[in-house]
Request: fold
Amino acid sequence: MSAAPSRSQFLGALGSMALAGCAASQGGRAGSKEAVRFGVSGPFSGDDANYGRVWRAAMDLASNEIARDGGLRGRPLELVYEDTQSNPRQSLVVAQQFVDDPSVLIELGDFSSAASIAASPVYERAGLVQFGFTNSDPKFTAGGNYMFSTATSVRQDASIIAHRSSRLGRRHAVLFQDTVWGKSASGAYVEAARSLGVDVVATQSYLADAKDFHAVLGTVRAANPDVVVYYSYYTDGALLLQQARDVGLTAHSVTTGACYNQQFITLGGDAVEGIVLPVEFFAGEGRQAVRAFARVYEARYSETPDLFAAFAYDAVRIAAWAVERGDFTRDGTRAALARGMTIPSMVDGPFRFGPDRRVARTDETWLVVKNGTFALWNGA
Amino acid sequence: MGETLLSGLVTGSVLALAALGISLIFGVADIANFAQGPLLAFGAMLGWWLTAQMHLPYTLALVTVAVTTALIGALIERVAVRPVMAAPRIAILLATVAAGIVLDRITQIIFSPETRVLADPFPHIALTIAGLHLGAFDAAIPAIAATAALLAGLFLAKTSFGRAIRASAQDPDAARQMGIDVGSMQSLAFALASSLAGIAGMLAGTYYRNVEPAMGTSLGMEGFAAAAIGGLGSLGGAVAGGLLLGVVQNVGVTLFGGAALQVVTFAAVLIAFWLRSRHAPPAAGAAGAGFFGLRAHVSSRPLATIALAAPAFCIPLFCGPYVLRVGSEVAIYATLGLSLTLVAGTCGTISLGQVGLFAIGAYASALLEKDLGWTFWCAAPAGAVVAALIAALAVAPVARLGGQELAIATFAIGATIVALILDLDPLTNGPLGISGLPPPVLFGHAIVSARDDYLLAIAAFFVCLLFVERLQSSPLGLTWRAIRDDVVAAAASGISPAAYKTLAFALGGGIAGAAGSVLAAQYLYVSPDIFDSNLSVLALTIVVLGGMGNAWGALLGAAVLVGAPEVFRPLHDYRILAYGIALLLLVRFRPQGFLAYR
Reply:
């Protein structure tokens, strides 16, 4: 053991590490007094890292545009990305880090509702807005007055999907990934579909990180549905649809905006042809703001922006608007979001948050996968 | 039914492939290699890159993957494993964990975290058998798995290299005297097992059609399960275990739904172990003190402990809320580590399932607070008791197993519990978890601030510490150490090792449960996402690096291992990579832990 450092050396190193940590937190963060910070708590590594990658791409775009236009009333904007792996264990610590830094005026994220909900008490007590722009679980915004979300709540989404898909057939099967989102969204769907007189013949869940779904799809096929609704992300969704073909499941397929990503078609190939889905954002639509965003995003990253990119981009723009409107205070930022009647947004146009601090949407754009691309769908 | 069985056999062949490398390295080197999962993912991603980006023919790509992963395996052996061969065996396990973290992160950085299509090389002939449409590749998978097992088996049995590998593993000294380069043979064994993992990863990816860097976690776990069911160390067993697991999974999913996949998988492992332990000779092959390199003497000095604890309570005077948040995490994981100090350090048995008991403590206290309106002060001890009871019930049937087998059985126990929590909706709320818990209230003061949370967590740690020190110095502790140091002598003296081991697991489980209760009181929210199986490995790493057998080691280990990812935050994308490398270096230079008595 000649090469091993002695115990005292090790303990010394540890001690200085701990002291450095204490000093850093006492002294506050260095940097320009004028800079305005937005904290971003998200999965920049780990299993959901791909969503973190998209977030960062879209947010950097928004922040560059803001910088180009002279910052926030002349003050530079700085996005502080902190990796939580979308894990509640880490989002709580990151939350504390953000609320301790007085130059952080709003927080964006986390990716999963679970990671966000665990951190909510810290944000609520500190009076810092937690803008969970992908958190569709109603429990998230119910967690406090500082929790806002632009994600369509699972209940609204369910009723939007049920209204169209009920016209495709009367016997529905629901397949959902066993996550917070999959569970609450599919539960809401079953309720909405039943209220429209639909016969829900099978409800099956699957583990999001599983790869082999033949058995569960066999069970669904045995129930003989006309319509199968997939509550999946685009990666597991593509796998499910391919394997659905293997087991001979031929019902109409319906899914959600989470599958609105070119990768869904790349991964799914022929198997995803004909599936329909509602989206809050469609890169191919006509509005000027959407076209401009899609063009810049594609030019810079050579991929079509998906829903997560659109929501992340919008979140930075909305936060910037609220911080300016709120005179660069945390409470002002909250008040601006809560009271603003025409909050600018690329996804929705001018909008306002409802009393539940969510956006009310009654219908969305419907897409169909046709000839290997997403196209507008007017059917049913 | 025919369809379920058939698709189970195809699934099972994929699992069998994943199990082969795991079983091989266990069989010839007696090492549970935790880098196999990340190797599977690396093989799959490299296979994608070679075929889709470099346009190599499939077979050539497969050969390149096999060679590359073999080299990586040899590198892991040389850099991570061999330097700690002389150290206690537990250090080897941790070295493979650290190497796995590093490789996992490198794969993600090189190939980006995206999911990719790994195209099927075979012509698209669809066979329809028993209602299932099979591609030519799907149908070929079972044959490939059997061939791979056969070739690896023949290599080990018939070639001189194979014999040398086995000889080096069975008796290194004798092998050395016969002129065998034992180190190189171990490298070769790692290369072979890693190459099998790379091939398995690429083939599994082809069968699934999609690959992503994160796929190693679940495929590695299922491969481990298949190898464990078939009997670790046996190549034929790996194939049989894989096929059996595939069929059991498919039948289970058909009966109980897709979310039951993990419950079924790990319950199958547990049942296999229960059946096997009925035939195990009593008290055979305990991991023992040699496994951990322990020569501890323990005494309880409550006053000294309290005096040493005082500085920990003064930290809030000097540090801000962020450090205190990290501090409470450290205290909670130190408490979780303590549960292992009792199990591993005191009675010489390793546990890889502490996360399950941690989760039970958290859920039990959360449910008691939320549904029955109990206060934290009643719910937390109750959570600990529930965890202790469940630990005793789960471990008792397998307590006769020794060493690494028991460790893997505990891994299955932990994984089954976590999977059940996700699946038992009516009780646990499934993936949604339980939110909006009331904060603990002390004399009318709600414990919610970073300071109060920290003080609660650190106080809980010291209560558990006093408990553990008291147990270690009691006659019970003496009995445990007797089992640890010489299980045969202990059994001959009329001590029932299985019963005492179960007791240690139960008391340790209680402490893990207490840690879980504190965690729930801090997050005011519990969900299955919080309790991933990495936590069991983290708990083990904490006590091994802190110094097994010394209860204070848990605090030190947790400070380093929970603190490090926070210290590395400025490194952003390279944070987890740096953490893996730091862990590797710690194991390399301090395999016996910081506070081990030497």
